[in-house]
Amino acid sequence: MYSQLEIIKKASFYVDEKKYIQAKNLLLDFIKNNKNIGLDIKLFYVLYLASDGLGEIQNSKKYLEKCLKINQSNHIVLNNLGNIFFREGDTQKAEEYYLSSYKLKADYLIVIINLAILYQNLGKLEESKKFYLKAIKLSPKQISLYSNLSRIDKDFIDKEKINHLLRLMKNEKLSDSEMSYGFFILADYEKRNNNFIKEIEYIKKGHKYSFESKKKANLTTLKYWKEIIPKKYNKFSFVKYEKKINKLSDFNPFFIIGLPRSGSTITEILLSSSDKKITSLGESNIFNGIIAKGFSSDGNLQINLDQVENKILNIFIEKNYNFKNRSFIDKSLENFFYIDIILKIFPRAKFINTFRNIEDNIFAIFNIYLEKLSWTKSLDYIVEYIDNYLKIINYFTKKYPNQILRVNLEELTNNPDKISKEIYSFCDLKWSNKVLDFKNKEDLLISTASNIQIRNNIKKYDYEKYKPYKYLLNTYSKNYSWLNKK
Fold first, then answer.
1. CA-CA distances (angstroms) from residue 378 to 113, 130, 317, 482?
2. Sign of the dihedral defined by the CA atoms of residues 335, 339, 345, 351, in that order
3. Is the CB of residue 362 less than 8 Å from the CB of residue 469?
4. pTM
5. Please, which of 101, 231, 322, 395 could form a disulfide with 111 given CB 3.0 to 4.6 Å?
6. What would the pLDDT profile of 401-459 be if each residue is shown by its tens digit?
7. Of the candidates 87, 416, 117, which has an alpha carbon nearest to the alpha carbon of residue 269?
8. Which residues contact 461 (CB under 8 A, 6 or more apart)?
9. The CATH fold of domain 217-484
10. Measured CA angle at 455 (ends 320, 441), to 5 deg
């Protein structure tokens, strides 16, 4: 019979190997068969790690709370509880646990970074800056920290810091990810000095390192976005085996779809400012997470609606979502691929397709570090993805004209009253002047690249912003007719 320490070590090995089910079952069996002994905090912590690996948020929380009962002064446990509440959108609880962890260990880098990110997403920029500076002091070679802080304080990166970063990038053995952040900082610095040629050179290097940082995963997802889903989006067949009512059929969800940097975040905020206080799931990627795992290049085209519905319900339970008025907002932009599937699950769903000048959109994507999106790592990939997007959104707009509203960012920024009223009318929501006064909302949580700029008043569209880069599209105009439309 194994001792508790041996079981914990064995389960930890399973977790390291990502064999989460084996780890969890091993520990639960030990608990079941040893009810009369004191259980070590490490046992519950490994259970938390296994549950977290399985995406079981509520179990993860439960096991961390058991750890806390054994030791209320464990800064690691407190930080991880904060992470869970942050993921659930409970920023008040997240802040409480993060601060408790920080008070116990003021040099705990992870919680300092978490506090900086939390305050950044909440728009408490001075607080965020304070914690980023603490983090940089503790970890002066972590370039990603400089990158995050430079988004809050545009004057933070000066010539001295540029020289420091150049030395780090030349002399230190940095990860591909950290090198990528470095090149994007260098690019932004060159942009401020109107050196657009050098800026583009650094952007390309930044994207290259970013792709290499997670090459295997990026190659897999890139193949999916380029070769698989564009060929299947309108060819799915649907089956429903269980004779039960669809528990989600009476929901009234709003799906914001399209390309990054097209006005999706401001549209999300406008909707979440309604009197109904609609929950926003942000970029939940729920449908992509379910559908993408079920299909490969050789996979069939059949969708089991019972399975999809059950998985969505489980996600809602795990993430502790509380939907008032049976409504929510989802800003997973790639959902334009899945409109047929979404309408099978949510027949009352409405889609808002945000868009802008397509050439501007290309460079708005290319010039920024969108770490998780493999198709944004080169102009070739971006243009190909957009080509598929334009074909697919055109197809679905014709198929479902009454369920898709197209919102032009240029029109929205130039005439916010008129366009926001159109959005509210489409969504059957009551519009008021406070809809446009979102910058004063205390609960405004934004985790996208638009975080800083979106907290100001809506600014009119800048038609000149990307003019210096337009020459880069000359090589693509022959193959993509939509680039020749003015």
1. 29, 34, 38, 19
2. positive
3. no
4. 0.91
5. 101
6. 999 999 999 999 999 999 999 999 999 999 998 888 876 555 555 555 555 555 566 78
7. 416
8. 356, 409, 410, 413, 414
9. Rossmann fold (3.40.50)
10. 55
